[in-house]
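re: ur question from earlier - yeah i can do the single chain one, its not a big deal. heres the input i used so u can compare w yours
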Amino acid sequence: MSLRTIIAAGITATMLSAGLAVPAVAQTANSYDLYLGVGPDETSANMSWYMPSRQQQYVEVKDASGHVTRVAGTNTRLTTTRAEYSTFANLTGLTPGESYQYRVGSDEVGWTIWFDLKTQPAADSWNFLFYGDPQIGAGNLTSDTEGWAKALNVSTGAHPDAAFLVTSGDQVNYSLDQDQYAAFFSPSELRQYRLAVQNGNHDDSPVAFARHFNLPNAQGYNYYYEYNNALIVGLDSNGINYGAMVNYLRTAVATAGAGKDWIIVTFHHAPYAHSWHAFESKPRDIAAELGPVMSQLGVDVVLNGHEHLHSRSYLMAGTTPRTTTETNLTPRGNEVLYYTANSSTGSKFYDFAASGTKRLPQLTYEESVAQSLVRPEVAYWNQDYTPDYTNVEVSPEKLTLTTYNVDDGSVVDTVTLNKQRLAPLPDNPGTHTTLPGDKETTAPTATATETATATATVIVTPKPGEEPEPEASTSSDLQVAGVVMPILAVLAALGTALWTQRDAIMALITR
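and the output i got, formated as tokens:
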């Protein structure tokens, strides 16, 4: 008996004992790991699936009248722990609010059953569901799979009209383990609702992630899609090439952000959270490199994972928080909300951490406030060691995020972001202007050195026709540059060469 069969049998037994509907079999011997993904917009879907041999396969889409359209897949050789192939196919021209069915395969190798594809009516008020790291295999494979199936079943049961589903990354624990991917794709909801995924650190195999997920408008693992009145940009936060994230975000907003009520960004690593991960260098680097750009580009909310602990930031202007006890928020100027999801499956939880080495199991939020342990950027956190999911409600006037406990349906956290933006706070380094509901705080007064540094880094834009005045360089500056710049050029070229050959390198490693 294969591990795929064992996993399916375990899920079936668990769902029957819980009184839940058993999902229809989602694969044949020739088609499996079926991914129904978001497409470039609400009228499309990007798909991929696995098969054991290089045979032409198709997607057939049937509309309500019974008319069938066939779309050919494109095959790509896989080099993983088993010799397999993946097929990509893109569906376009879907009419919002219409009912469709689809199947994959071919007359030669056989077809899957027909699956229902949910499309919601075109409207400026809608919702989607957000899940923290499933990370199938981080705990027990069978229980992790059951937890993922339960999270999807409970959340879509409570919110059946969700437009699509979003994960925060780390779909599996080990990206080259095909059985973990089989478990991730096993719930029937993933054949009905379109899914958007992030590239987490546990997904970071350029072979497996790239072959499993067919991303729209992709550049590497950065991608974006539009849905009604929102632009959603998924960024790849693995590695340290934050410049690529920034450049892609700028391009996506310039290309598709105009006229949108909301700009939502998703990536794996949370800059503002409270597990031990929050005290590593990466969150600080992401906050410093991306925070000012998020504000500059008018991003409204950022959705993260990685922490396995729920947290919500204050409204952030760049990297500066505006503290308030309110949960009905009206941003001032360029403020951004950061929202980090707990585990959606229960495969792994992290304790609250007061530092990189000081972890405090079972501590409550109220206790952390009383002991002055909460980071200045974090407005709220929760760790009850049970799985969560978040419903994100979108309308032209406001965006509301409500996080629910999967087990009992209780509300873990809720926050509303109003679209209307007030004038930014005065730029005064010595004070913090308070609003109704704000905590009274005073920012530290800048030292003479800090003031001088800030003044020196102001960029003056020349008027049209004028040339900017070059900065004076000392002889020591030029000597250092003459040595350092050639070294940096060599390192950059080496890094580029390795990155462009990453698939070939992984193929050799996993052969």
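DSSP finds eleven helices and 27 strands in the chain. not sure if urs matches, ping me
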